[in-house]
Amino acid sequence: MSPDPGRTVDAEGVRRDILDAAPGAEPYVLRGAHVTGALLLDGAEVRRSVRFEACLFDEAVSLEGATTLGVSIVDCTLPGFRAPTARFGGRLDLRRSTIGGDGHDAVELVHADIAGALRLDGARLIAPGRMAVDAGGLVMRGGVFCEDGFVAEGEVSFPGAELPGGLWMRGARITVGAPDAYAFHGDMLKSSTVRLSRGFTTDGRVRLRSVRIEDLLTFDDAELLGSGTSLMCVGMQAGALDLRFRYRPAGGVNLRTAHADRIQDHPSTWPATLGLDGLTYGWLGETAHTRREDVENRLAWLRRQPVYVPQPYEQLASHYRRCGHEDEARRVLLVRERRRRATLGPAGRTWGWLLDSTVGYGYRPWIAGIWLALLTLIGSLVFAAHDPVANAKDEGTPFNPVVYTLDLLVPIGGLGQRDHWHWAQGGVQGLAYALIAIGWVLTTAVVAGVTRTLSRN
């Protein structure tokens, strides 16, 4: 149904008809009319439901500070709808209406209170460079629905809103004309669920700082084209977070100090940069069919954090441990130490390299066993090919090249060989001194690496 240009009604007459009704009167319904003048109901107490269908309004409809029952403006065209601080006893229905175009914000609901749902399904909101929806501090009892072809030219804003029935924007499209501008702003939003998914598209940034989502915050199949930081979720808390975008976001995703009980994502849509410092989670979706591939993918995920910080590695290792994957947890912590080494000075890097090559920073102590076996083999072969000189005639145990080598390498205790034999050849004696030095270095590295591991984990 479209407005009948021949049927014109005056806004003042409409206002009188709406306000002159007794409590509980039949709903006021107007269909297919051209409403001239401004329909102003600011501060009014409207005691009946109001419904406009397929009407054309010359000027914005205003209910600032009004108290009313349900209001429906469906399939209509109007320059704006303004109801800041208004109280709606039923739902507010703006489905399939075209709102805006007068150089002002399209829909204003700042600190409004709506007992029912807010329906914007199929609506087209036109406010380029301004607010398509300005709903800061909105208090709902039902949900907010912006689906079925919802289009907004201008920012959609719900900062500090309370939406127990959820925010549903599946398939919605928001355009702001500038990739560095905010297309969706929802700081401090509280909601049961937020669905910016199933084809949700925006050419600007999405900002959700410190939101509280009881159930699911999802961007499944969403397309985020904002530059810089496409998605800002610093301090977010959510029951579940789905980051399986349709394509890789044009900018970064910032999840610093956020928490989600469950996170689901996919390597193919990871952004170029990720803010992960302080991010915590109870469960992290797998990225591959094997654990080896999954941990490699997750380490690549952590490398998208622009600068090294230890917490994301410790959090990932904790996740693997809760899953019973100790080997993967040690692998993550080893990579953490290697990345940390790159941030140190020359002395720190040298000591870190020594810890890594000897015991894998304590996470691979078996490497020390390999060094010990290799050095024992080399020493045994060299010492067996030469004749030792006894320190005292007719004293000491018979010479054994293997035990002698071990006695040199292990600085603690003694095996009865090192103190009873020496070498006349300078080269062989030099090898003996070198093995003593290597033994001390290897032992120090083992103790330091194991102590480091036990103290930090």
Structural account:
- With 457 residues, the chain is α/β, with parallel strands linked by helices.
- The protein folds into three domains: 8-288; 289-342, no CATH class; 349-456.
- 27% of the residues lie in helices and 27% in strands.
- It contains eight helices and 39 strands.
- It has a 16-stranded parallel β-sheet that branches.
- The longest helix has 31 residues, at 426-456.
- It is rod-shaped, with a radius of gyration of 36 Å.
- The mean pLDDT is 89.
Number of H- or I-type helical stretches: 8
Number of domains: 3
Distance between the termini: 69 Å
Q: Give a short account of the largest sheet.
A: 16 strands, parallel
Helix content: 25-40%
Unreliable runs, pLDDT <50, ≥5 residues? none
How many whole angstroms does the radius of gyration measure? 36 Å
Principal-axes shape call: rod-shaped
Percent strand: 25-35%
In brief, what are we looking at here?
The chain crosses the membrane at residues 366-385, 431-451. By secondary structure, the chain is α/β, with parallel strands linked by helices.
Keywords, separated by commas or semicolons:
16-stranded parallel beta sheet; 14-stranded parallel beta sheet; 27% strand; 27% helix
Blueprint (SSEs and pairs):
Elements: E1 8-10, H1 11-19, E2 28-31, E3 34-36, E4 39-40, E5 50-53, E6 56-57, E7 61-62, E8 67-68, E9 71-74, E10 77-78, E11 81-82, E12 87-88, E13 92-93, E14 98-100, E15 107-108, E16 113-114, E17 118-119, E18 124-134, E19 139-140, E20 144-145, E21 151-157, E22 162-163, E23 167-168, E24 173-175, E25 182-185, E26 190-191, E27 194-195, E28 201-202, E29 205-207, E30 212-218, E31 223-224, E32 229-232, E33 237-242, E34 252-254, E35 259-264, E36 274-275, E37 280-284, H2 291-302, H3 311-322, H4 326-341, H5 346-359, H6 366-384, E38 389-390, H7 401-409, E39 421-422, H8 426-456
Parallel strand pairs: 1-3, 2-5, 3-6, 4-7, 5-9, 7-11, 8-12, 9-13, 10-14, 11-15, 12-16, 13-17, 14-18, 15-18, 16-19, 17-20, 18-21, 20-23, 21-24, 21-25, 22-26, 23-27, 24-28, 25-29, 26-30, 27-30, 28-31, 29-32, 30-33, 32-34, 33-35, 34-36, 35-37
Antiparallel strand pairs: 38-39
Helix pairs in contact: 2-4, 3-4, 4-5, 5-8, 6-7, 6-8
